[in-house]
Specification:
heterodimer, A: 477 residues, mainly beta, 32 strands, B: 930 residues, 27-stranded antiparallel sheet
Chain lengths: 477, 930
């Protein structure tokens, strides 16, 4: 009997099953392509030639799931975004959101998969489906999903991109990305209507509009869980995935609470001008084709590189530089910005012209209201290390590469008619010579310049040819 | 009219009980070899200290005549058998005919020139058939019948069903019929593992008369597990095997009849395996038995017996051939998967149904005895399964995971490669299920929990859980049997049986797989009734119920069945002719009680349904013509009606009390006839049988992917015919050699066109009504319809024996999907197309040959250890089943009920099958102290 009990107890099963971690772990996979790189690579083949091709390279992309099939509005389609672009993944499994919910990082092994487009939207699937003409992307078979898609950590933040309807003109850039539209409402005929037809199970288009008469389709599947729910009647924001269907631009809603439309309705056309959109300084320079005005609704943002208190720049003028370049802005009144201020200036509609070769916003009579500018904070601009020869060879016309930007020239000798900064002096660095101009109103105009070899930091200007000016004597060392 | 028959039965019962005249008695009984249940001929039986004696005939039967009333002690002189075995039994003689339950004598190594054959096939195979979930165990124990002896154990390996029947053998334990009233299945699991205590049994074959029950189409068995019927002994045995379990320990103790009329007996057994023959299966079974008996006087005896078995095991799932071929293993089991590297089975069965029986034996008079048994059985049967809410199907062999589901050839090849090479891939991915339940996106807030405004519960909402599909049974049975010898030519037997059963069916959360709770809503209703908030509630009485481990959810209903039966049987015995006539009258009432108010069927799901009342009759009779003392001709017949089963009456008892169309009695008639030869060295039985079962119905339900819900198929107008022959022979060749052979050749098929009705679990809408199913002449599935065996055994005088058996099985038919055999199933195909044939033809598994061998050896230890006072024996049994390792024997094959009506591709939802084990062994060592 003792033997009996002993044998019995030693044979007891260990009932406790171990449990895996709850927030997932990223696989040991090296991501070697961004989604944008993949899209760019196949853009012509897929979107222009309308072909479906298999991917033979051992590329791995990753992205965060930004839309899944939990509501049923997406069916066997997953939307991922890695910060460079978004793309659709087709997989033959319903309720896949249990494995790959919104916010989970996924890694996709592209080798052996296929890429193509459906009505202008690029998508990746398991294989080239040759049974239809033209060929299409076949969904990843359910049994192979785990071979191509590897799940990583869960619960990553999914933040939509704030865009306007006008921005969506760039369909390639925004397709298959989660976007957020503000000040938007359903058109009067589409308010308080079911999103789709849950009985006939057919999809329905509802139309959204903004204040500037822009419209966009919201398309919802009859199978989706909120199909019977009704559209809100107010205005507000809409977060959804943007897509194209041939010429149509359309939104796919993930879930009803992605609409926050508790505000009153607006009347189309009677709204304030659209908020200015940020453009690069170089785009303003590039767009310039002669005296006129900057395009409406534009603003620039950058760091002030000119110095007011030392007087070597007019108190109403400033030079501002962003990562693309610099420009001179002329205010109607004296400003108090100093070197290193990060500011934003509404420049839409402002006069733009050249004065003796220097491109200026504000024109020959300073016209930019000081109220168009806002200080955002501070920052620094690292001067571009450059030779005089480089400066001279890149100064022609309004697209002068370095005009109004901060540079640094090393190994310079200063010579002049006098021994002080005032007026024009000449810099030589062995590659060429460059005029340095100092206003007589500058606080240091009567100071003597050093006679030895120095390094100079300054802003490139133009007075029928390249010039440089320093902000103060600390720029000469 | 029917009431009158009932009254008549009761009257006979009462009248016969008081019949009593003579003062001497004839004792009748049978002696059997305890190891193979073969009869023991030429054994002198006597009463201790008296001169009365008798001798057993070729069938082991004996009679001791003219014994005055009184108490005696039984003795026999069987050589080669344990002298003490059975010799302690007190025989109470107080009626003209004293019938002693058949005695099985244990084999012993006492000086002997004659030993019985010792095939060791017994225990292990019986257990195997229990765990198969099939019901062949009705034929437990061998007998003196040569067909029965040759086929019982051997054919169970192929899940042979005698005469193709499902549940037609009724087994009684201490007088209690062990039959589940819901589905008429035998409750053999009740005594699983307690092989030592069920040896005292009496078998009746076919339609023959028995003196303990009215019987069924395929005979009956009566097990006597009362303490006084158990050996006086202490026995311990250990067995090693590689079939359903790896180890078995068993200990049994019996006092025999002690002073003061008391006797006590007990047995305990444990069977277990970390992994059985098939990967992913484990076995863990405890069984116990206790019996206490008191003889108060010569006329009264009272016994209390409890039998129980707690058995838990991981199951094997049937799979499609595509997978077996890909994996290269016919024992692929889709039911398990790795969880952090450990094997876990998703389908674990747990059975615990202890039975308690109080039996009163009463000698009413010299010629009449009355046995009253009252039984109560309470039990819980659960089978775990994965359940899920709005999630992909997690099952390993889900059809969309099969390579054949993929149309693209390259991708199909990729999937095939994964199936072939990656073991974890082809099993359940438990880790992924935990990930789903525990990741932050499964966090949910449930409002108005339980319908209480403001009652909010937040946490990880499990998408996947393990559920217990639970059946909680309560059975109460009263059984009364009276045997009265009216005169030398007539024995009158009558009985009354009452049984009431309540079975509660529900789902219960077993494991939340890492989540905090599960919500009791019906995802399919959410889809189908988008505008009806209540529809998604499985229970409107407790809406939005948040359930945790141990909580009921999904459905909860009770099946209540009450049955009363009275029967009477007359057996006449004359010089050349024996015949009997019997009738049974019964009334049945059953109904459904809903415990949940289903959101879709709010008006007919909760509470008690209407009654279903049936009155049924049965008549049977038989005649045996004795050509001489060795040659017999016999013929038996039966006609009866039978109430439909609960499980075949309600369309979808989980959700509502809707019944199938045309609930009606089954009508049955059956005949058998044959020839029996009982010569000392040759025994033959040849039987032909014919049975017709009409008006049967059947309800099956399954998950339908396209409808995204369970659908219920109800089939009515099912007529079947079971006809065939059984031949068994046993030849004693001399010098210790014996040859046996048996053949079962059946034609078991449907004789009607069934009518099919399809409904959704989710809707009262009927998808098809009384659709004609072209099922005529299709075969009844379940086991081989051709089975034959030939055996040769040798018994040494040195107390060992060997036994070799060759078997062949053929005509193993798959259960067919009726929905395919409809005009919708084949239209618009041409009836001479190959596709037509593929859809219509019934699939048949190929015939298979197997070989088994067994051996046995025993020692009397007293010869070696002189200090032992009591006789002590050591017995070793060993067996190899399927020596040739034939892994192609399909023991269960069925077509899936889903059918691809669009493409009409019968392979899309291909047939599933289970293969019988390859070579397996069983070895046991037993130590017995008498």
């Amino acid at each position: 009997m003792v033997l009996f009990l002993a044998l019995s107890f030693t044979a007891c099963r260990d009932e406790q099953f171990d449990q895996p971690p709850s927030n997932g772990v990223n696989p040991d996979l090296t991501v070697n392509k961004t989604i944008l790189e993949i899209k760019d690579f196949f853009r012509d083949t897929v979107l222009t030639d309308k072909k479906t091709v298999s991917i033979d390279s051992s590329w791995v992309i990753s992205g965060t799931v930004v839309a899944d099939d939990s509501s049923g509005n997406y069916y066997k389609t997953m939307v991922i975004d890695d910060g460079t672009a978004g793309i659709l993944i087709l997989l033959d499994r319903s309720d896949y959101f249990r494995d790959y919910p919104i916010g989970r990082k996924v890694f996709i092994k592209l080798q052996g998969m296929a890429i193509g487009s459906y009505a202008g939207t690029m998508q990746i699937g398991g294989y080239v489906d040759n049974t239809v003409t033209p060929t299409e992307v076949g969904k990843i078979p359910s049994s192979l999903i785990s071979k191509y898609i590897v799940g990583g950590v869960y619960n990553l933040p999914v933040v939509p991109y704030n865009v306007s309807l006008a921005d969506l003109a760039n369909t390639y850039k925004w397709q298959s990305r989660l976007i957020k539209l503000s000040d938007i409402q359903f058109q009067p005929g589409d308010t308080s209507k079911p999103y789709a037809d849950p009985v006939g199970l057919s999809s329905v288009n509802r139309y959204l509009e903004d204040c500037y008469s822009g419209t966009i389709i919201m398309r919802t599947s009859g199978y989706c869980s909120f199909a019977a729910k009704t559209t809100p009647s107010g205005s507000g924001t809409c977060t959804a995935v943007f897509g194209v269907f041939n010429a149509d631009k359309q939104l796919t809603l993930r879930r009803p609470y992605d609409l926050e439309m508790g505000n009153g309705r607006f009347v189309v056309g009677t709204c304030p001008p659209p908020p200015a959109s940020l453009v690069s300084i170089s785009s303003i320079r590039t767009d310039y084709s002669g005296p006129g005005a900057v395009g409406a609704g534009k603003k620039i943002s950058g760091i002030v590189i000119s110095d007011g208190p030392n007087g070597n720049t007019d108190s109403k003028n400033l030079f501002i530089q962003d990562s693309s370049g610099g420009i001179c802005v002329r205010f109607t009144a004296a400003h108090s910005y100093v070197v290193g201020d990060s500011i934003e200036i509404n420049v839409g509609g402002q006069t733009i012209s050249e004065f003796n070769g220097l491109l200026q916003i504000g024109g020959s009579t300073p016209s930019v209201p000081l109220g168009n500018s806002t200080k955002l904070g501070t920052g620094t601009v690292t001067p571009r290390l450059i030779t005089i020869a480089d400066i001279l060879s890149n100064m022609s016309g309004s697209t002068d590469t370095y005009e109004s930007s901060l540079v640094r020239i090393v190994g310079v000798t200063i010579t002049g008619a006098t021994t002080t900064y005032s007026g024009s002096t000449t810099l030589s660095d062995g590659t060429g010579t460059l005029t340095m101009f100092t206003r007589s109103a500058a606080t240091f105009s009567t100071s003597a310049f050093p006679t030895g070899v120095v390094n100079i930091t300054g802003v490139i200007s133009d007075f029928n040819g390249a010039q440089i000016f320093i902000r103060n004597t600390a720029d000469v060392q | 009219m029917k009431i009158r028959v009932l009254l008549l039965s009761v009257l006979i019962l009462v009248v016969s009980s008081v019949a009593a005249l003579a003062q001497t008695s004839t004792i009748r009984g049978i002696l059997l070899d305890g190891l193979n249940s073969k009869p023991l001929p030429n054994v002198i039986v006597s009463l201790k200290g008296r001169s009365y004696q008798g001798t057993t005939n070729a069938d082991g039967e004996y009679e001791i005549k003219n014994v005055p009333y009184g108490n005696y002690i039984f003795e026999h002189n069987a050589t080669g058998f344990n002298q003490e075995d059975g010799n302690n039994a007190v025989i109470v003689v107080k009626s003209p005919l004293t019938t002693i339950a058949s005695k099985s004598l244990a084999h012993s190594p006492i000086d002997s020139d004659e030993q019985a054959a010792i095939p060791t096939v017994s225990i292990e195979q019986v257990d195997a058939s229990e765990s198969s979930g099939d019901n062949i165990s009705g034929v437990l124990g061998a007998s003196r019948d040569p067909f029965f002896a040759a086929t019982t154990f051997t054919f169970s390996n192929a899940r042979f069903r005698p005469r193709g029947y499902n549940n037609e053998n009724l087994t009684l334990l201490n007088g209690i019929p062990m039959e589940d009233q819901i589905n008429s299945r035998g409750l053999f699991g009740t005594w699983g593992g307690l092989n030592d205590i069920v040896r005292s049994r009496e078998n009746t074959f076919g339609l023959n008369a028995s003196n303990y029950t009215y019987g069924s189409l395929d005979g009956s068995a009566s097990i006597d597990a009362k303490a006084s019927r158990q050996r006086k002994q202490f026995q311990v045995s250990y067995a090693k095997s590689n079939r359903t379990y790896d180890n078995r320990l068993m200990a049994t103790y019996g006092t025999g009849l002690m002073k003061g009329g008391w006797s006590f007996s007990s047995s305990i057994s444990r069977r277990w395996a970390d992994e059985s023959y098939v990967k992913g299966t484990f076995y863990d079974g405890w069984s116990w038995y206790m019996s206490l008996e008191k003889r108060f006087s010569t006329n009264h005896s009272l016994s209390l017996t409890q039998v129980g078995a707690n058995t838990e095991n991981g199951s094997v799932g049937p799979a499609v051939q595509e997978i077996f071929d890909l994996v290269g293993d016919n024992y692929y089991n889709p039911n398990w998967g790795y969880q952090n590297g450990k094997v876990r089975n998703a389908n674990v069965s747990l059975r615990q149904e202890p039975l308690t029986v109080l039996t009163h034996e009463w000698k009413l008079s010299d010629k009449s005895e009355l046995e009253t048994s009252v039984g109560y059985q309470y039990g819980l049967n659960t089978r775990t399964a994965l359940d899920w809410y709005n999630s992909p199907d997690p099952r390993a062999d889900f059809y969309r995971r099969l390579p054949s589901y993929i149309e693209d050839p390259i991708k199909r090849a990729e999937a095939e490669e994964l199936w072939r090479t990656d073991e974890a891939y082809r099993q359940i991915n438990w880790d992924a299920l935990y990930n789903t339940n525990t990741n932050p996106s499964s966090f949910a807030t449930i409002e108005n929990v339980g319908g209480i405004a403001g009652n909010t519960v937040s946490g990880q909402r499990s998408a996947y859980i393990v559920t217990d599909r639970t059946v909680e049974n309560q059975r109460f049975v009263i059984n009364i049997v009276n045997n009265t010898t009216v005169n030398d030519h007539l024995v009158l037997t009558s009985g009354f049986n009452h049984s009431s059963q309540e079975s509660e069916y529900y789902l219960r959360v077993n494991d939340l797989l890492g989540g905090d709770f599960y919500v009791d809503v019906n995802q399919f209703a959410e889809q189908d009734y988008p505008e009806n908030e209540g529809a998604l509630q499985n229970n409107l009485l407790n809406p939005n119920n948040v359930v945790r481990v141990g909580d009921k959810y999904g459905y909860d209903y009770k099946a209540n069945i009450n049955k009363n039966a009275a029967w009477v049987q007359t057996q006449f015995k004359f010089n050349k002719v024996d015949f009997f006539l019997a009738t049974n009258l019964s009334s049945t009432n059953f109904y459904r009680t809903g415990e949940f108010q289903n959101g879709i069927f709010s008006t007919n799901s909760y509470g008690k349904s209407s009654d279903n009342k049936f009155i049924n009759y049965s008549f049977k009779g038989g005649l045996t013509y004795k050509l001489d003392g060795r040659n017999y001709l016999f013929v038996n017949g039966l006609t009866e009606t039978r109430a439909p089963l609960f499980e075949n009456t309600y369309v979808s008892p989980r959700t509502r009390d809707t019944k199938i169309n045309n609930v009606q009695n089954e009508e049955i008639y059956s005949f058998e006839g044959g020839y029996i030869l009982r010569a000392p060295k040759l025994k033959i039985r040849a039987t032909a049988y014919f049975t017709q079962i009409n008006n049967a119905s059947r309800v099956v339900n399954f998950y339908h992917e396209d409808f995204r819900t369970f659908v219920n198929y109800a089939f009515t107008n099912i007529d079947r015919r079971h006809t065939g022959i059984e031949i068994g022979a046993d030849v004693t060749l001399g010098q210790g050699w014996t040859a046996t052979g048996a053949l079962a050749l059946g034609q078991h098929y449907y004789t009607s066109r069934m009518l099919g009705n399809v409904t959704k679990d989710n809707s009262s809408e009927t998808l098809s009504e009384d659709e004609v199913i072209y099922s005529k002449n299709f075969y009844v599935a379940g086991g081989p319809q051709t089975a034959l065996t030939a055996g040769l055994s040798y018994r040494s005088k040195k107390f060992w024996s060997v036994y070799l058996n060759a078997n062949y099985y053929d005509r193993i038919y798959y259960d067919f999907n009726p929905a395919r055999r409809t005009s919708e199933g084949v239209a618009p195909l041409s009836d001479d197309s190959q596709q037509w044939d593929q859809i219509i033809d019934q699939k048949k598994a190929p015939g298979q040959f197997t070989l088994d061998a067994f051996g046995s050896k025993s020692w009397k230890l007293n010869s070696y250890i002189k200090t032992l006072k009591n006789p002590t024996f050591l017995v070793i049994n060993a067996g190899l089943t399927n020596i040739l390792n034939n892994q192609d024997l399909i023991v269960n094959g069925f077509e899936q009920l889903r059918f691809d009506f669009t493409e009409k591709n019968p392979e899309k939802f291909a047939a599933r099958q289970v293969y019988g084990f390859g070579t397996t062994f069983f070895a046991s060592v037993t130590l017995r102290f008498n």
